[in-house]
Amino acid sequence: MAEVLVLAEHSQAGEVKKVTCELLTAARRLGSPSVVWTGPGVEAGRGRLGEFGAQKVYVAGSGEFAEHPVAPAAELLAQLVGEKSPAAVLVAATTEGKEIAGRLAVKTGSGVLTDAVNVTAGPDGAPVAEQPNFGGAITVHSVVKAGTPIIAVRPNAISAEPSPGAAAIEPVTFAASDAAKSAKVTGHVTAAKGSRPDLTEARIVVSGGRGTGSEDGFKIIEKLADALGAAVGASRAVTDAGWYPHAFQVGQTGKTVSPQLYVAVGISGAIQHRAGMQTSKTILAINKDPEAPIFEIADYGIVGDLFTVIPQLLDETAKHKD
Ligand SMILES: Cc1cc2nc3c(=O)[nH]c(=O)nc-3n(C[C@H](O)[C@H](O)[C@H](O)COP(=O)(O)OP(=O)(O)OC[C@H]3O[C@@H](n4cnc5c(N)ncnc54)[C@H](O)[C@@H]3O)c2cc1C
Question: Whose CA is nearest to atom 37 of ligand 1?
Fold first, then answer.
């Protein structure tokens, strides 16, 4: 069976990110998954990779991947594509993953598909990627016609399903070129992180819009998010007004999320906002305007004032906590 390379997303300590398990699940549909692990930590991560079907783990364990972002990883993948002739390369459609995918495509003369929300094997076994386009208005099924298919898959789009694999470690001899090392990370600032899940990885996202009225009004979004164990998101109207940091903006010029449940509160549903959340599995909209466009894509809608609806939701949630 042809190998499918999966670029692992992981912490320096070896904690494997959920999206890597999702990529492994997709890779199993196409062939035999081989993880590509950059930097240290593989000893800690190997068990989880095996749990989700990795047969091999190619390890380039040097520290240069942490010091020099993106370019060395693209070079490593290009080397492995040359050596292993995989059926496909899967990466996470994160900011970094998409840049690696683009660079790899140029290096290997291959086609690249980004922001896939599903990957399946076509009738000839070649990978078919499902991609939402034009802000989610159109869904296309795409195949790569040149070189090795390189597909960037959105976190949370595919459910990770375990299936045991050998996860046999194979060290890789690799040295990044000087050009790949021309950008250097000179320091790290750890973002103050509360107990909330990461916005792009969360199973539930509660997002607030201009309807919250003010920075103070937006606090009700955090309350609902905490009651549901969710991440907080915001529309651009909110981040532009300075009511919540830009890092939490969802949409065309913000983050793309695909949670199991997206709760849009006081958000009208502009096309640019939809572009970042339209592929959520279930969408609940709370808006006082029954004509708000968000209701066109919502699975469930509550027409009402958010400052009346949310306290009721909080009461109900509290009742079901025990
Ligand atoms: C190039 C470009 C890129 C953009 N990128 C993004 C992006 O990444 N993300 C993004 O979000 N936007 C983006 N926008 C902006 C986008 O077009 C909208 O302006 C923005 O999404 C509107 O935010 P909103 O829904 O919060 O506000 P509004 O459109 O003002 O909607 C507020 C909603 O709240 C409802 N409401 C008001 N009060 C209450 C209440 N008390 N209870 C319940 N409901 C209430 C209203 O009925 C209304 O539907 C972009 C625009 C451009 C031009």
Answer: 211
